[in-house]
TrEMBL record:
This is Probable transcriptional regulatory protein D1831_12195. The keyword Transcription regulation applies. Residues 1-21 are annotated as: Disordered. Belongs to the TACO1 family. InterPro entries: Integrase-like_N, TACO1_YebC-like_2nd/3rd_dom, TACO1_YebC_N, Transcrip_reg_TACO1-like, Transcrip_reg_TACO1-like_dom3, YebC-like. GO terms for biological process: regulation of DNA-templated transcription. It comes from Lactiplantibacillus garii. GO terms for cellular component: cytosol. Residues 5-75 form the TACO1/YebC-like N-terminal domain. NCBIfam families: PRK00110.1, PRK12378.1, YebC/PmpR family DNA-binding transcriptional regulator. Keywords: Cytoplasm, DNA-binding, Transcription, Transcription regulation. Residues 81-236 form the TACO1/YebC-like second and third domain. GO terms for molecular function: DNA binding.
Length: 244
């Protein structure tokens, strides 16, 4: 691991995300739909669906919303979403990956391109950026009221099959092989840990320092991308100067 604290970035955006809860539910509904299409409606036999359902519960998504999305994926509805990845560079030459679920690739591509160019970035060819990121399982355990030291946590993580542990005053961040995420999550849960987050993510191999005069532009670009209804995740290989 590069020392990148994904949790720090998540916490920094939490209030803004809470204000957009309706959009979050809409995006998770699409992910549930896609997961059911890919592996069926039974979370016991569909690990991907199980992860998205955990994500939905963590976001306090109502059970009725979850059920509707699963039922829609099980049926023969008219919706036909596709997964699309866009690669590019933000202000300051920061590598950015954008994952989207869309029923209209032309609409989504135009909106993503606009977000990049509006803020001094540019889309790049397929493969130009993706090699800079590793697909990993990512688990967070909040340290508040947790009576476990770092050595004990590391032993439990390794016993569960995790690859790496990073710790801060606020949380333990655990990284796993992407294919082992569900197994590690279940093993840690069985040990009595309450998981704040358990998801698949893209981790940058290295971070690029964001020039001070580009910070605001880059953040506005990321915000515009995340505000797009079709965009499910945005990953950036950015080291912001005020996060050191």
């Amino acid at each position: 691991m590069s020392g990148h604290s994904k949790w720090h970035n998540i916490q920094g955006r939490k209030n803004a995300q809470d204000a957009k809860r309706g959009k979050i539910f809409q995006k998770i509904s699409r992910e549930l739909y896609m997961a059911v299409k890919a592996g069926g409606p039974d979370p016991d036999s569909n690990a991907g669906l199980r992860l998205v359902m955990d994500k939905a519960k963590a976001a306090n998504m109502p059970k009725d919303n979850i059920k509707r999305a699963v039922d829609k994926g099980s049926g023969s509805g008219a919706e036909n979403y596709e997964e699309v990845t866009y690669e590019g560079y933000g202000p300051g030459g920061i590598a950015v990956l954008v994952h989207a679920l869309t029923d209209n690739k032309n609409r989504t591509a135009a909106a993503v391109r606009s977000a990049f160019t509006h803020h001094g970035g540019a889309l790049a060819a397929t493969g130009a950026v993706s090699y800079m990121f590793d697909r990993k399982g990512y688990i967070v355990i909040n340290r508040e009221d947790l009576d476990t030291d770092e050595d004990t946590m590391l032993m439990d993580v390794l016993d569960a099959g995790g690859d790496d542990l990073q710790s801060s005053d606020e949380a333990f961040e655990i990284y796993t092989d992407a294919k082992q995420l569900a197994e590690v999550r279940d093993a840690l849960t069985e040990k009595g840990y309450k998981l704040e987050t358990a998801e698949l993510t893209m981790i940058p191999e290295n971070l690029t320092d964001v020039p001070a005069d580009k910070v605001e532009k880059l953040r506005h670009m990321i915000d515009e991308l995340e505000d797009n209804d079709d965009v499910s995740e945005v990953y950036e290989a950015a080291n912001y100067p005020d996060e050191d």
